[in-house]
Structures are given as structure tokens and as C-alpha cells.
Amino acid sequence: MRPAVQTPVLAAEVGVVRVTGVLDQDAELRFTTGDRPHALLFLQIRPATGFPFIARQDCGDDPTHHTAAEAKQHVLRRGRAVTVYAKGITPRTDHGHAVLKLEGVTDVIPHLPQPQEPQALGVPSPSDAGAEREPRQEDLYASH
């Protein structure tokens, strides 16, 4: 009998789901009731293709975790690209809307905003600035 062939797999990758997409709406922060309430972040993520995802990250019951969750919530706004790590996925349908629910969310990483073109920020481009600069020697000869 031959020994089983084992494929090398990183331990960190076993049982981990990674989803990257854009937030459909601002993240919601809610708190459970009880003596030690947990801070819960709720997200709706739309990947480039396929079904949308919903996720809930339990940020913990310590007051410092609540502060960190509030800070993270302010960054997780509609349109922000994020990567979410979870332990699994469950399909879910509510009132005709199919989504995939990320189970056991371990991390939510917001991506940095993409740099914008200078024109989008109101900064003139080098070609636009030409109207305001002194004429160059080449410009003078080209007009004759």
C-alpha cells in the first residue's frame, strides 16, 4: 500500500476564506446587551463578480475593543474596498435576496483609498498650467 500523498499547505490558510470587495453601505456598529456587551461590526460587501456577502465581526467585550471598533467603523464607509477573513460561508436568502454570509469573521482590513488624478483634486495638470506660464521659445517660433 502506498503512503498518502500530502500537499504542502500553510497552516494559516487551512479553513480560511478571504473575500475582497467594496462596501455596499457604511458599516454598522451594534452592541449586545448584558453585563459585558460585545461590539459587533456588520458589513455588506460586493465582490467584483458573484453574490454579495454579509459579515459580522465580534470585536470583543472589553471597552478598549469598543473604542477600536468605533474607530474602524468610521473608516468602513460605502464604496471603501475591504478584505474580510472568515472561517466559512453559508448561503442565505431573505425576501428574494440571495447573499453569502461569512461565518466566524476574524479580520476586516480596509484598503487605502486609490490616489486620485491631480485634475480631480482641482490641481492643474502641466498642460493646463501652460496657459498661465510665460511663452517658451518653441511656442514663439511655432506661431509664425
Commentary on this structure:
It is a single chain. The protein is an alpha+beta fold and 144 residues long. It has a single domain (12-114), classed as OB fold (Dihydrolipoamide Acetyltransferase, E2P). The chain contains three helices and eight strands. The chain has helices at residues 63-75, 126-129, 137-142, and strands at 17-23, 28-31, 39-46, 53-60, 81-86, 88-94, 97-103, 107-110. Strands 1, 2, 3, 4, 5, 6, 7 and 8 form an eight-stranded mixed sheet that branches. A hairpin with a 7-residue loop joins β2 (28-31) and β3 (39-46). It is globular and about 75 Å long. It starts with 16 loop residues before the first strand and ends with a helix. The model is unreliable at 1-12 (pLDDT under 50).
Main sheet summary: 8 strands, mixed
CATH architecture name:
Beta Barrel
**CA(first)-CA(last) distance:** 90 Å
CATH class: Mainly Beta
The whole-angstrom Rg is: 25 Å
Q: Judging from the principal axes of the Cα atoms, what is the shape?
A: globular
Tally of distinct domains: 1
Strand content: 35-45%
Query: What structural class is derived from the secondary structure elements?
Result: alpha+beta
Topology order in helix (H) and strand (E) letters: EEEEHEEEEHH
